[in-house]
Structure formats: structure tokens, C-alpha cells
Design a protein that fits this description.
Blueprint lengths: L1 H24 L5 H14 L5 H18 L4 E2 L2 E5 H14 L12 H16 L7 H24 L3 H28 L7 H4 L14 H20 L4 H21 L2 H19 L3 H31 L2 H20 L10 H10 L17 H34 L7 H15 L7 H25 L1
Antiparallel strand pairs: 1-2
Helix pairs in contact: 3-4, 3-6, 3-7, 5-6, 5-15, 6-17, 7-9, 7-10, 9-10, 9-11, 9-16, 11-12, 11-16, 13-14, 13-15, 15-16, 15-17, 16-17
Organism: Listeria newyorkensis
Keywords: Membrane, Transmembrane, Transmembrane helix
Membrane topology: Multi-pass membrane protein
């Protein structure tokens, strides 16, 4: 008994010493708290099967991916939870028993994505800026892993329902934040409206700028409409109508033209799937909408015209950037300047090389994924990415056309939103919401085609 008491007293003494040391170190290295929390969490989960643990960890990756820097240590805003969880997930995946057969139906886009990354790594041989290229390659790998992990771990409809529930909950919170910003003019900590002091009510939600936010709303509104109209009731229908009204108001407030167009197309595709069996009702709904738009044009024609044509400076600047990038492609014989390096040339074309403030970032995104990618890696590197996009177009259209359920409309809607954000936002390399969305689209294609094959056999 005395020996047991001595051992227990020794453990208490060690714990006290450990916390004393921790109290001294933490003020100087706050990040150690995050490491400690992860270590304790891993210890508590040591008896959980690795595959199951990785599934729940992936849900954490998705949630933290949407919340981004808002789950960061105050002293280290770039060191947020997503970065920790995705690296931890990658490491644990290496020790997990693999089952790649579940990827058979979607292996082509994954292989094309890998080829795109490998060619980007090859471009390090001639890149104009190794640092920018290494950063871009990291984001490519991160994007691929999000796409891959979504398909790998969400391998049945029960898991799909769980992940969609989390996505919808975060989406609703983001709508509430955008509405609050639009009505009050206040913005969250990492919003450009707060950082750059816009002084207006353009919302950004949990993202940085308005174009990203409007595209995000277009990306994930199909999931919200699925939850509301999967089993239609009068109460859910009323909520759906109210949600569409609020979202339309918020997107108009963002003043994002690409986001508005994507949102309109996505809603139209979803409404057709909801009411396609009531063709007269759907036709009446469209006609009512068109009549309403006509009244808006009559009453507010000048304002609506200014919405699309009033950003002359922005439009001219983008046209100049596109001309610069195309000229850059020709100067390098369409072989590429190195992955992630095009923004450096765009910045120089816009601002020159002298009288640049030290605090100013010396890169400027091309605001066009396709042109920027062509300029970065040339025709050879761009080709697999084009094939990747073509695969998505063909399969999402086929799923939409061949299946009656509302779930089948989500992949093509995500693809429409992706097309908008690829030319509307400044850069989507580091935008986790984009690659999570594509992962969701590929997962749905995989599950729906798997279900169809089972029914045929």
C-alpha cells in the first residue's frame, strides 16, 4: 500500500511540475497548447479503429475547412485548425488499411489531377520564382487530398447525409452572418470589409471578399434546397421561399456579377428538378419570375444596368490582365513560367517595379484560373486539367439527365458555381470551399452511378 501511495504521489508531483513548466512556456509559444490538445485527443482515441477515427477526423477537416482562420490561435491567425487536422489526417491515412476499389468510378479525374501536380513539380526546373511555385504546389496537393478524401471516406449515403448536415448548418450560419453584414455594415475580423475598411454593407460571410462569398452561396445552395425539398411540406416550402429571397438579397448586396449569374443558373437547375413532374407549375413559376424581372427593369432599370456595367474600372483592369497573361504565354512559347508565378508578372504589369511600398504584396492574381493555369504550366501542363474539367462536365450532365431525384442535380450545380468562381474570384488555389465542393460533386457522381450499376445487375 505504501509503495502504491508513493507511486501515486510521484505521479501527482510530475503532473504539477509539468503544468508549472507549461505555464512558463505557453506565454512565449502559444501554439504549444494546440499541440497539447491534439496529443491528449489522440491518447483518448487510441482504442478507436483507425479507419473509423480517420472518418471522424475527416469530418473535422471539412468543418474546419469551412471555418478557416476563425478556428485559429489569436497570436497565429495563419496557424488554424484546418492546417493541423489535414496534416494529421494525411499521416494517419498512411497507416490505414487501404481500399482503393471504391474509387474505380472516379479514378480518371484523380489520375488527371495527379498528372497536373506532377507537371507542376516538373516546372520547378524553369520557374521564375521557386518560392511561389512551392507554395502553389502545396495548395495543389492540399486540394487533391480534399477531393480524394471526400470520395474515399464518404462512400455510402448514410455518411453522405452526415456530412451534408454539417455543411447545411455552417451554410445557415454563413447566411445569417451575411444578412447581419448587409443590414449593419459591420464585418468579421478576417473580412476585407474590416481589414480594408470598405465602409459599406457588402457582405463577405466567413470568407475574405465579396466575389468569394457570392460564389460560396451559389456552391452550396443546392444542399440547402435538397434538405428543404427532399420531402416537401408546406412549412419547408415556405422556409425555402424565404431562404431564396434572403439569398437573392445578399448576393445582390455583394455586387458580384459572376456570383449572381451562377446563383440564378443553379436555382433554375434545382427548381426544374423539384418541379419537373409538374411541368405546367414549373412553366408558371418561370413566367412569374420573368414578369417580376420585367417590372424590376421598368422600375429600376438604370440601377440594374449599372449593376452589370457600372464596374468599368474593374472590367478594364481585368481585360488588361488577360491581355498581359496571353502575351506572357506567347513570350514563353506556351511552355509556362512555372506554377504559381503568373501573379508576379501581373503585379509588375499593373504596378511596375519602383515606388512599391514595403508592406505591399508583390503578386496580383489573374482573376482567371484557366488563363493563369495556362500561363503557369503551359499547354502540356494545362491539358490534364482541361481533361479533368471535361470529365466533370460529361458525368455531371449524365447524372442530372438520367436520374429523377433532387440529389442528382447537385453535381452539375456545383460545376456551374465552379465555372463562375474560376473567373470571378481573385484566386481559388487556396480556397478550401471550392475543392470541398468539387469533392462533394465527385462523391455524388460516384455514389449515384454505383447505385445505378447495382440496380442494373
Amino acid at each position: 500500500m505504501n509503495r502504491w501511495n508513493e507511486t501515486w504521489d510521484g505521479k501527482k508531483r510530475n503532473v504539477i511540475i509539468f503544468f508549472m513548466l507549461l505555464s512558463v512556456v505557453v506565454p512565449f509559444v502559444p501554439a504549444i497548447l494546440a499541440v497539447l490538445v491534439i496529443a491528449i485527443t489522440c491518447y483518448m482515441m487510441k482504442d478507436i479503429p483507425l479507419q473509423k477515427l480517420n472518418y471522424y477526423l475527416f469530418i473535422g477537416v471539412v468543418i474546419s475547412g469551412f471555418l478557416g482562420p476563425y478556428l485559429a490561435l489569436p497570436a497565429f491567425p495563419s496557424f488554424f485548425l484546418f492546417r493541423i487536422l489535414i496534416i494529421l489526417h494525411m499521416l494517419l491515412f498512411l497507416f490505414e488499411k487501404k481500399d482503393f476499389k471504391k474509387l474505380d468510378r472516379v479514378k480518371i479525374p484523380l489520375i488527371l489531377f495527379i498528372i497536373w501536380i506532377l507537371y507542376s513539380i516538373f516546372s520547378l526546373l524553369w520557374t521564375q520564382s521557386p518560392l511561389l511555385s512551392i507554395m502553389a504546389i502545396y495548395y495543389q496537393i492540399e486540394s487533391f487530398y480534399l477531393l480524394f478524401a471526400f470520395i474515399y471516406y464518404i462512400d455510402n449515403f448514410a455518411k453522405l447525409k452526415q456530412i451534408l448536415t454539417w455543411i447545411v448548418l455552417i451554410y445557415i450560419v454563413t447566411i445569417a452572418i451575411g444578412l447581419w453584414e448587409s443590414l449593419t455594415g459591420d464585418h468579421l475580423k478576417y473580412s476585407a470589409g474590416n481589414i480594408l475598411s470598405y465602409g459599406d454593407t457588402r457582405p463577405t460571410g466567413l470568407l475574405v471578399n465579396t466575389n468569394d462569398y457570392s460564389s460560396y452561396l451559389a456552391f452550396y445552395i443546392p444542399v440547402l434546397l435538397l434538405c428543404l425539398f427532399h420531402k416537401k411540406t408546406i412549412f419547408k416550402s415556405l422556409i425555402g421561399i424565404a431562404a431564396l429571397g434572403i439569398l437573392t438579397f445578399i448576393i445582390l448586396e455583394t455586387e458580384s456579377r459572376s456570383g449572381l449569374i451562377a446563383f440564378a443558373v443553379v436555382v433554375l437547375l434545382m427548381l426544374y428538378k423539384i418541379f419537373h413532374h409538374k411541368i405546367m407549375f414549373f412553366f408558371g413559376l418561370i413566367m412569374s419570375t420573368l414578369i417580376g424581372l420585367c417590372f424590376l427593369l421598368v422600375q429600376h432599370g438604370a440601377q440594374l444596368t449599372a449593376y452589370f456595367t457600372g464596374k468599368t474600372d474593374s472590367t478594364n483592369q481585368r481585360a488588361f490582365m488577360y491581355e498581359t497573361i496571353f502575351q506572357l504565354c506567347k513570350e514563353h512559347h506556351f511552355l509556362g513560367v512555372g506554377i504559381g508565378v503568373t501573379p508576379k508578372f501581373v503585379f509588375t504589369a499593373l504596378y511596375g517595379t519602383s515606388n512599391i511600398p514595403d508592406t505591399m504584396q508583390r503578386t496580383m492574381s489573374a482573376h482567371n484560373l484557366w488563363l493563369s493555369n495556362l500561363s503557369d504550366v503551359g499547354i502540356l501542363g494545362f491539358f490534364p486539367f482541361i481533361l479533368f474539367a471535361i470529365w466533370f462536365i460529361v458525368h455531371t450532365m449524365r447524372v442530372y439527365a438520367q436520374n429523377q431525384q433532387l440529389l442528382a442535380a447537385i453535381p452539375i450545380c456545383i460545376l456551374v458555381a465552379f465555372a463562375a468562381i474560376s473567373i470571378g474570384s481573385s484566386s481559388i488555389f487556396e480556397m478550401r470551399i471550392v475543392w470541398l465542393g468539387l469533392g462533394l460533386a465527385a462523391t455524388l457522381v460516384n455514389l449515384i452511378e454505383q447505385k445505378r450499376d447495382i440496380q442494373i445487375t
